[in-house]
Amino acid sequence: GELLMDEHLSPRKLKVLAGVDDLQQVKALEMRVDTREISLGNFGVHLPNLRELKLNNSLLVSVRDLGTSLSHLCTLWMVRCGLSDLDGISLFSSLKELYIAYNNISDLSQLTWLDHLEVLDLEGNNIEDINQMQYLQLCCKLSHLTVEGNLICLKPNAESAEETDYNYRAEVKKLIPHLKYLDRIPASQT
Fold first, then answer.
1. How many domains, in total, are found in the chain?
2. CB 121 within 8 A of CB 95
3. Tens of pLDDT, residues 92-105
4. CATH classification at residue 53
5. Can you tell me whether residue 187 is helix, strand or coil?
């Protein structure tokens, strides 16, 4: 038990996980983790060429649990990880694709720092206010966005009643004019 705790994501453990002797070779890694019990430490230091990280169905208390040394990561999957906020996501400054479907995220303000973001999957989260989409205006390369399964698809915010003439697609397009695809359909189609 003690040895496993100390060694959770040491270079030795990472070599076993990735199935390689040289961690420099690792460009993609998929694993399930539970950060409530074990810290991941700054495991990215050992994986200088890691570009894709898939953590689907993990239990992450915070994005910050991933450490500060994954700034070279291009694609990150954190689907169904129990995340309630994105605090710390700005450390992933090279991200082009972020898949964070089926979490409890309601605040998108942290995403404004992701200058290279092209694909964002927010399906099935807790986004209750259409104005949260304004933060994504600053992601000037964002071309593919998925928001289906959020309250904003039904009404503009939690307080408002459902309006028959409300069209979330038109509202999102107004707020993010450079968007090409919304919920996997060309954004121009309302």
1. 1
2. no
3. 999 999 999 999 99
4. 3.80.10.10
5. coil
